[in-house]
Each structure stands twice: as C-alpha cells, then as structure tokens.
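Recall the central idea of this unit: under ordinary conditions, the amino acid sequence of a chain determines the structure it adopts. In this exercise we apply that idea directly, starting from the sequence alone.
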Amino acid sequence: MSFVAIATTVATVASTYMSVQGQRSAAKAAEMSAEWNADQARKQAKFEEATAQENMRRKRENNKRAIARQRAMGARAGLTDAGAVGDMLIDKSERLQQDVDDLWKNASTRSEQLRGQAQMSLWEGKQAKQASKYAIYGTIAKGVAGAATSGAKAYGNYKAAQPPQAILVDE
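Accordingly, the structure predicted from this sequence is:
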C-alpha cells in the first residue's frame, strides 16, 4: 500500500471522528441551551405572578381608600350609605374589584404562556439531540464508506503494481 493511500484512509477516519465529536458537542450545547431557556421562562413566570400579586394587593388598598373617600364625601353631604349612595358604592367596589381580577387574569395568562415556552424549549432540545444522533450515524456511515473506498483503491493500486505471476501448467 502506498503512503498516499494510507494517509487518505487515516485522514478519512480522523475527519469522521472530528465530525462526530463536533456533532456531539453541538447536541449537548443545544440540550443545555434548551434547559437554560426553559428555566428562565419558568423563573419569569414566577416573577410575573409575584409582581401581579403585589400589584393586586396595592390595588385593593387603593380601592379601599377610594371607597372610603367616596363614603366620607357622602357623609359630609349628609348622605347615608343606604339607597342610591349605597348602590353607587357597591357599583364602584365591583368595578374596582374587576380591575384587580383583570391584573391576575393577565398575569396568569402570561405565566401559562411562559410555562408553555419552557416546555417547548425542552421539547426542541430533545429533538435537536435526536437529530444530532442521526447526523452522527450518517457521518459514521460516510466515514466508513470513505475509508473503505480509500482502502480499496490502495489495494487495487498495490495489486496493479505487482508483477504478474507466471502460471505453470503441468503437461
């Protein structure tokens, strides 16, 4: 076998090995990235829920003050909480509570979206890992075929370089 043929075969094997290692590293990086993204999305969901709960608490306090002001204004005018004033206070209280409910609805919807993104990120990471496995198998198959082709060419060149053998025939 010639030096060129051996070098070609070794280069093919080395190239295949390096390609496989690169694909394995890329798969690991994709998986780690997906896990990190999922973790960040879950943290963001918790943060948004905690922020919404704090905003809801503040909104309720402000609502109590607004109703108390309304009640005090009515009392200064000599009105009681009965009748039209009472109905107005109830209506205002319901509208203010709806604002609080809307805060939670928006935050919980956003949190669910973030948790969905976290799940999708993990799924994408698994898919990238699986795709990388198939790419690795393809690279190995290509490398084996390349090494076999180089080896076959080298063997063919070796056989062609050998002098023909005389065949003796007995008479």
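The chain has a mean pLDDT of 85.
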